[in-house]
Amino acid sequence: MDLKEIAKIIDAELIGENFEVSGMNTLKDASKSEISFVSNSKYIKEIQDTHAGAIIVDKKSLEFVPQGCSALVVDFVYWQMATLTKYFAPTIEDETLPHAKIGEGSKISAKAEIANGAIIGKNCTIMAHVYVGANSVIGDNTILYPSVVVYRDCKIGNNCVIHANTTIGSDGFGFATNKMGEHNKIYQNGNVVIEDDVEIGSSTTIDRAAFATTLIKKGVRIDNLVQIGHNCIIGEYSVLVAQSGISGSTTMGRNVVMGGQSATAGHLTIAPFTTMAARSGVTKSIKESGVTFSGFPLMEHKLWLKLQAKIAKLIV
Amino acid sequence: MDLKEIAKIIDAELIGENFEVSGMNTLKDASKSEISFVSNSKYIKEIQDTHAGAIIVDKKSLEFVPQGCSALVVDFVYWQMATLTKYFAPTIEDETLPHAKIGEGSKISAKAEIANGAIIGKNCTIMAHVYVGANSVIGDNTILYPSVVVYRDCKIGNNCVIHANTTIGSDGFGFATNKMGEHNKIYQNGNVVIEDDVEIGSSTTIDRAAFATTLIKKGVRIDNLVQIGHNCIIGEYSVLVAQSGISGSTTMGRNVVMGGQSATAGHLTIAPFTTMAARSGVTKSIKESGVTFSGFPLMEHKLWLKLQAKIAKLIV
Amino acid sequence: MDLKEIAKIIDAELIGENFEVSGMNTLKDASKSEISFVSNSKYIKEIQDTHAGAIIVDKKSLEFVPQGCSALVVDFVYWQMATLTKYFAPTIEDETLPHAKIGEGSKISAKAEIANGAIIGKNCTIMAHVYVGANSVIGDNTILYPSVVVYRDCKIGNNCVIHANTTIGSDGFGFATNKMGEHNKIYQNGNVVIEDDVEIGSSTTIDRAAFATTLIKKGVRIDNLVQIGHNCIIGEYSVLVAQSGISGSTTMGRNVVMGGQSATAGHLTIAPFTTMAARSGVTKSIKESGVTFSGFPLMEHKLWLKLQAKIAKLIV
User: Fold this and answer.
1) pLDDT tens digit string along C258-268?
2) Collapsing DSSP states into helix, strand and coil, what is residue C47?
3) Closest CB to C245 among A145, A165, A260
4) Mutation to test the A interface, candidates C227, C249, C250, C302, most A Cβ within 10 Å
5) Interface ipTM above 0.95
6) Whole-model pTM above 0.95?
7) Is the pLDDT of residue B316 over 80?
8) Complete domains list, chain B, with CATH
């Protein structure tokens, strides 16, 4: 698809050169053959540094588009960007891909479904009613318990254990909303990558990225019923206790501990070795590492204990 | 089954005419051929307006039963009503129903199970290990990702997307409890209806109604690990973020937003365009539309911010 | 495997007699042929009363090992104990076990998977995409809805109903962590036992015990998306509302009610007939029965209401 065709799809005015478009991406990650967008004035600075070949903008932001970069001018950037994502979404399954490859020593249940294009490593155990999607890759010695679902294009490392009914790579919760209150799906064309030695509990959900990758690093431990939003990065050896929830695009350093039912807002950065007590609610990035927090709003655990003592006195 | 037989099952005294009973329902929704019940004195006013053919009551409430309506007099209304629900529960699967009908262009995985009596629309994608129960109807262009479970008698509209491991139509959490602390299941004989253009995340649970319908209206967006109790009505274009929970019989207007890990109590009405911040806990109905709330107990978001500032000062 | 071999595996000094080891267990539950461990000085008192044949200890604790009990002396007890659990883990499936036995009148979907060694009682309904693991036993008249997963060695009683996508017996969240922040899995070699007349909602997760049994007693009602950690005991007729979470090794008496999104910390004891309002957070054991609590930190519900009134006044 070239830029002219795209301009038609999203009803945009094309300013600049036409070229063959390979995909969509964020301003930061887009390459010369990709389209990006700027829908929020706080990202205007990022326009300067983008390598995107074209940017979807509104009239107000047009002047910030750098030389040599094409512009697609529309009225509602976020809505039109969402419309376009559909055109870059791969099919859910693709029968033209080669049959799945299964490594030596792997036991695949006859009741599992391994889609075309998938690759399973050596000595894996893939149990009944597991689904592994197109082009997904599972490393060596990995166990997928019954009814685990891995969507297409994801990657799971070596020596991982994923417990029953867990979902890897379902769509992130992304959509644009217009003035009528209607929603327009942002197709989630990224993936999930899980590195080696990760264990994940049952009925946990890890969403695929809108663009790029949701990343679970080496040695992470995730409990049951945990939610990880699209584009999160969970640092090495981090521990996410049951029913905790990490909103989209949050990045954690290594050995972060999230207690049971704790949660973070989106787009935060959490320093390594941070500990959140159970039920913590994190709304701001944490820069100093090694600190233990509690509460919602969040505060240092020591302070929270003090505060609860003070609050208790209010009753007297 | 006629009223006399029912009187025997629940050990009731029958006062009034006998008739053939078609089912059970609430006072508000019951028709002439249905039985209802009143177990809580605050619903006694509703007796006057009911169209039910018969009502299960205790001796104290007997006098409120309107003329022409039969009464089944028992000692423990709620317990005996629960006992009776079992007799109106359909079988889980029914081999006498006709084979499922599959619309043109739909791709049904050989590893999916479509029960007899189900109807799948056109151009659907029904993936591996999906279950669609008896008499359930799926609209056109709808995608059910792997291991989605749709119980019997439910209805899903056109252009819906339901992500992996999500359950539609499991039994609502209903039971009567006696003085010994024992529980008696209230069979959930209603269903779930999901209108067009709805997207639902992974490992979300939407319970079928006890009677009537749990309703998800057009254009709603539901994230992962969300709980929706029996008999809820979720208004058009509402947005339920991950791990939020809506208790039974709560009705939301259009474009309500429930933040992550927020929750409502049951039997509430939430005005359209209400926004609940993450972790909000809603215990009373909300009448004014367009307001943003926070906290538990709930308050206007602005007030909550003020209050947190005051609370923080307690530590000094 | 005898004690000498085990000493080699975990690089321990063996003091005392060698014997053939049958398994691992807690100090309290271990028998003469089992190994236990003491990694926390607060359990040193329990050493005196243990029946374990051998105990993994560090040098400091060696002196407390009772006469006639062998000692395996290591530097890092918890880490080495974790290492050893792997050697006692059964295979996930075992083709040498006899074919599953199915009781009279039971309907097993052709798309369910019943592993070798499993036993299904009479008149059960085992629906599509259910998995029942090796040696697991299902009682009479029990219904497993689609995509329920029961891991090996578990036991479910008579007249139980387990809704779709629920997982029984996945691994508890157990691991040792070294000074490098790396984790070492504690294989969960116990099981889950669910007694008669229990109903469990959809996408709920109940973890198997590390050693011994996670126990759900007669008549319990569990809603959707509930988390029950390893080694918990849930008392008769208790009610766990949606999205509540019970941390590992907590024991509840009968008829405890946990409201929606409530939670307990681990290793607590909750008195019978305790009620926790929605969102309660329980961090200490509750000794007096029949009391209603709220809040986090937890307090009596009446107090909590008073406190919220006082807090509300802070804004004025």
Assistant:
1) 999 999 999 99
2) helix
3) A260
4) C227
5) yes
6) yes
7) no
8) 3-88 (3.40.1390.10), 101-304 (2.160.10.10)
